[in-house]
Amino acid sequence: MCRFWDISLIICFSVSVMFVGGDNISELPPPPQNLTFIWETPFRLSLTWEKPEDLDRSCIVNYTVNVHHSQECSGKYDSRRVQALGCKLNISNEKGLCISVTTNLENCGKSGSSQATNISIAPPSVRLVENRSYEYSHSKMNCTWIPVVDVQDLSLYYWLPRYESVKKCIPDETLKPRGCIIHDEFLKDTLDIFYLFNGTYNGTSVFNTFTDERPVKYVKLNKPQLTIHKDRQKLIFQANGSDLDEFAKECYSYIYTISKCNKNSTVKDKEHYEVQYDPACKYRARVQVDFSQKCGAGKSDLSDEVEYGEDSDPKLPALLAVIIIPLIVSLCLLVSLVLLRRHKDIIFPQIPEPSLLFKDMLINNIRTPEELQSPATGRLYIPLEEVVESKISLEPDTPFVPMMKNEPK
Q1: CA separation (Å) from 15 to 1, 11, 28, 159?
Q2: 129-218 belongs to which CATH class?
Q3: How far apart are CA 31 and CA 34, in angstroms?
Q4: What's the whole-number average pLDDT of the chain?
């Protein structure tokens, strides 16, 4: 019995939800009708549609146009709201387009947005180039690319919304693999720029259209120079750029890569940077100019490396003292021993043997035990007779007369 009532409640709830959902769908406004498009130029797409039927005249109607840069209406999209039965879009067709239009109602019984009316646009049949890159500086932008297929007379054109027609990019053979240069005074301030590649493929004229970020997102700055000098106990790193006059000073910052005692560090600062100087370390530094994101994007190449000072071990003085002092002491000791050995007779003279007189006095002053008991006073000293060599001979002081040999007659 309980199971029967549970099933009945579930069926009733499902039927009520279906009716409520059907009412909500029926209350949505109808979508626009007969959505069509036409390319007025390679970069301008014109969309038109018809107003939905059965709308109250008191309703305020507007339309939402969503543009997906692919053939599927999914993912990211650009959106705009219009009140007319059509709009024109400045757009390129690189990977195909999917465009959806919905109806929006206000001040009437029906409200909200309708289901979307979609239209899909196929991409070009032939892709002409890839790996596009740009470098902007002082109203000039270098454009390079790599051809995908063999196309005769391949040329690049560009278009700014302020212009009525496209302009040709001037070819430059120095740009590799292929490239050209755009000279235009409005590049710095433009927000949208479109590119058109045109050529002949298999006897048929083909073209591709692209759009990329505004030129100031590709700023290329010249390589700066770096100098290092000491001011008292400070070490000052000074960066000098050669082309930093196009934008405001706040648009530039400097990235210093500094090696101190072989320890690397990176810091972002102004055109000069100061550190506390350590005389025991060798400094190696490079600098790069960075273009701030609030003004655009880009940077320069790294400067040449600059060196200052020499590396030294902080423990070196103590180490040298431990090695040199014992060495000096040992050397001095060795020299002292050599000199002592060489001049020992001067430093330690030989003591002469006492004369016979002192020996005899010592001997005569020695008393026997019997003599010590005698009441008589000490005995007198009797000196020994000195022995003097008596064999002395005198020779007459006669001149030397040489002997003459008898010569035979």
Answers
A1: 22, 6, 21, 59
A2: mainly beta
A3: 10
A4: 82
The predicted structure's pLDDT at residue 300:
94
Q: How far, in whole angstroms, is CA 177 from its chain's centroid?
A: 28
Please report the pLDDT score of residue 246 as a whole number: 92
CATH code for residues 222-308? 2.60.40.10
Q: What percent of the chain has pLDDT over 70?
A: 76
| Assigned architecture for domain 20-121 | Sandwich (2.60)
Residue 387 is encoded by which pair of tokens?
């022995």
Strand partners, 105: 61, 112
Cα angle value 10/15/18 (rounded, 5°): 125
Contact 182, 140 (CB under 8 A): yes
pLDDT band at 397 (very low <50, low <70, confident <90, very high): low
20-121 shares its CATH topology with 222-308 = yes
Domain ranges of the chain: 20-121, 129-218, 222-308
Q: What is the CA radius of gyration of the chain?
A: 56
The answer to pTM > 0.70 is: no
Give 71-94 pLDDT, tens digit per residue: 988 888 999 999 999 999 999 999
